[in-house]
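Changelog entry: the Gamma-glutamylputrescine oxidoreductase record was regenerated in this release. Current contents:
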Amino acid sequence: MANTPYPESYYAASANAVPPRPALQDDVETDVCVIGAGYTGLSSALFLLENGFRVTVLEAAKVGFGASGRNGGQIVNSYSRDIDVIERSVGPKQAQLLGQMAFEGGRIIRERVAKYNIQCDLKDGGVFAAITAKQMGHLESQKRLWERFGHTQLELMDQRRIREVVACDQYIGGMLDMSGGHIHPLNLVLGEAAAVESLGGTIYEQSPAVRIERGASPVVHTPQGKVRAKFIIVAGNAYLGNLVPELAAKSMPCGTQVITTEPLGEALAKSLLPQDYCVEDCNYLLDYYRLTGDKRLVFGGGVVYGARDPANIEAIIRPKMLKAFPQLKDVKIDYAWTGNFLLTLSRLPQVGRLGDNIYYSQGCSGHGVTYTHLAGKVLAEALRGQAERFDAFADLPHYPFPGGQLLRTPFAALGAWYYGLRDKLGF
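Regenerated structure tokens:
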């Protein structure tokens, strides 16, 4: 079978050394078969192993091949739609439960890094940067909202204060979240995979799930083997394809683009981001950036609907970087890549169960680093019979894209054009 390597990226080039993992070539029996070795799958596997389950993980390519190993590396709290939007949709009781969970994913990441000694350049502190007065007003109400759910590590910043943490004159203010932060995302997922194996879990790479035989004892088939399990967790997200047709109809893969500069040196790096916080602006189509452990700038932004790979990523993202930091005009770009995430129409994650024994979580809508770690815990709780938190997610309403799979891309692109215009005009 063809060996799928990591796509070229700064993360792949600077990844910690890991052992090669075999492809599944026989028949295996286990308690839980997890499909997908990204954050959702490995977080689920870790919580299950810690609670005595036997776990087998199937990965179509390599651990962290998808969004988990290619994202901007930012630990951002809450969901892609905030708790007030959820509250209007589902009412106060369910929103209370989801609000309490909105800040748990970042804590889980830090617990995992500490417990399993994961080397992933973890740094504390994330900035939301406001470009307009309307965005600043939104941050003020967001701070009140988050504090209502017990999240207190927040500081509003005026123009003078934000200049102390970001050397960019676009921003009129912002909010600092000290429980936010950033990581080397591929090294985090590789460390989690090693933790899974240290607890007796098995991970097979180059082993795509090609068919699920549903029933009382479900079986997952790969090209050269199969796994019989009591439960299945489907955690393929944007890389699931049509394995589970009823999940594909309600979601759409989207691409985001990232570039990484050459090493900037200590002085230039410190002049851009003196406290080494990560930053995202408050536009609908937002830009985000941070420094790496070896003092490069990672800068991402833009969305390609339908997950096509654009021909020249640097041409799309470099102008955005130079708008924020014109002082980098002579700096070379060493890496440029794209990665897919899964968008839902509501922009809220989809969590649920098919039949009695197939569980899934998908559709983080660009807010996945923290949510996926929480999702793993919530899925593991459900398999242990504690379903209250699982049900709070499972009861969120979800809708298929208008026009089905054929029209979902043009509809979403039209929406993005509209919001991009609003960003430009400062609405």
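Residues 186 and 346 are 28 Å apart (CA to CA).
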